[in-house]
Design goal:
Elements lengths: L2 E6 L4 E7 L5 E8 L2 H13 L2 E6 L5 H8 L3 E4 L2 H7 L11 H15 L11 H34 L13 H9 L11 H10 L8 H10 L7 H38 L3 H5 L8 H11 L9 H7 L5 E5 L2 E5 L6 H14 L4 H12 L4 H22 L9 H10 L1
Parallel strand pairs: 1-4, 4-5
Antiparallel strand pairs: 1-2, 2-3, 6-7
Helix pairs in contact: 5-9, 5-11, 6-9, 9-11, 11-13, 12-15, 13-15, 14-15, 14-16
């Protein structure tokens, strides 16, 4: 049996422990997190013929270098490492060197319990970068939009009612031009119509209705100094929101091109009724990946996506509970797929409705439907074929029964 290594990852250095199949220590040292240090670490692993490395994170620069060197890597969750520490200590001591030893021992004795990392292709990694960056920017946009709405509610409530979304381009343009009630004193129907025409308003609501929304809102009693301060806050928040909104739009366009060019793109796009639903499809592909060895069964995929409950049994007591240990991003995307599918797919709607009729609340019914959709998604993903409702036996049986 080749040597085994445990690495405790840190920002500036990594503690390394290499042991043989009997647990005898071969190397125990610290490597710097720079090019010389990582190169020396890889050379050290090669000298001792290390074939398996245990580490606490599934991705990152060091993990990428290890995989590129042809070394198998298992990612052990920090909670599992913390639970295993008491196997190797009498007191409650802890150090990075000790954690490297715990990782090494877990890899030596329990490696069969932890799956090897299954690296994805460059196309998938690029798509994952775009999708996750967009998700982070969306979260930032929502936070800034909530702050902007809170400022407006405090001294100019009408500005939050004139347009549906406070962070839409036209709403931001309006607030940039009229950041306070004082700036909008001379705003009438003719001037508002000109503003809407310049900014390409869709025309969903007539000018008089928009102006009525603005003027019917309650008026706040605010002093001049506070008004000036809140006006400055609105201008600052708009300046922060504008580039984020623009970047989200650019990333969405890049994601659309990336998933259409991805070999597995047609598989994930086929699960959505609207051709414009590229973000969720791309997110599913980015999180599931293209390496079929990562999820050898649909049950593993469903468990990782929190679409399968956890069974708790003790004596005569047996219950099923919510699964908290899962991939949170994948759970969100599978739930989005299930929630969107129930509106147009007859079989999905029936599966959801039967769960509700049994007493399940909406989130529980979505997880039940998500579990069923995960089986279908996994099968199409493994076979490399897009979804076809005529090949979906449960769906065709439902359609036949309904006539």
């Amino acid at each position: 049996m080749a040597a085994i290594c445990g690495i405790d990852w840190a920002a500036e250095f990594h503690d390394v422990r290499i042991a043989d199949e009997h647990g005898r220590v071969l190397v125990e040292q610290r490597c710097e997190h720079d090019e010389d240090g990582i190169s020396a670490l890889l050379a050290l692993l090669a000298v001792h013929r290390v074939e398996l490395v245990a580490i606490e994170r599934p991705e990152g620069l060091l993990v990428g270098r290890l995989l590129a060197a042809g070394i198998a890597v298992i990612a052990i969750h920090p909670n599992k490492v913390a639970a295993a520490r008491d196997r190797f200590r009498a007191a409650a001591g802890k150090s990075d060197r000790f954690d490297a030893m715990v990782l090494c021992e877990l890899a030596r004795t329990d490696s069969h319990r932890f799956p090897r990392l299954a690296p994805s292709t460059d196309e998938t990694l690029a798509l994952r970068t775009l999708v996750r960056t967009r998700e982070d920017l969306v979260a930032t946009r929502v936070a800034l939009a909530n702050q902007l709405r809170a400022q407006l509610d405090a001294f100019w409530a009408g500005a939050t009612r004139i347009f549906a979304d406070i962070d839409s381009p036209i709403a931001l343009a309006f607030l940039e031009r009229y950041p306070s009630p004082h700036d909008a004193r001379g705003l009438g129907a003719k001037r508002l119509a000109g503003f809407l025409a310049r900014h390409g308003y869709s025309g969903r609501r007539p000018v008089n209705e928009l102006l009525g929304r603005l003027r019917s809102a309650p008026v706040a009693i605010v002093g001049d100094l506070e008004t000036d301060a809140r006006r400055a806050a609105v201008i600052g928040l708009i300046a922060a929101l504008r580039p984020i909104v623009d970047q989200i739009a650019q990333l969405t366009s890049q994601i659309r091109g990336a998933i259409h060019n991805h070999p597995d793109g047609p598989i994930f796009l086929s699960f959505f009724h609207d051709p414009k639903s590229v973000v969720c499809a791309a997110s599913l592909l980015a999180e599931i990946g293209d390496n079929r060895a990562r999820y050898p069964t649909s049950e593993i995929l469903a468990a990782n996506a929190d679409q399968a409950p956890v069974a708790i049994e003790s004596g005569k007591r047996r219950t099923a509970t919510f699964r908290r240990a899962c991939d949170k991003r994948l759970r969100h995307h599978i739930s989005t797929l299930a929630d969107s599918t129930r509106h147009w797919h007859p079989w999905a709607h029936d599966t959801y409705q039967r769960a509700r009729d049994r007493g399940a609340d909406h989130p529980h019914a979505i997880r039940i439907l998500g579990r069923a959709r995960t089986r279908v998604l996994w099968r199409c993903w493994q076979d490399g074929t897009p979804y076809d409702i005529t090949q979906h036996q449960a769906a065709t049986r439902h359609l036949t029964t309904q006539g």
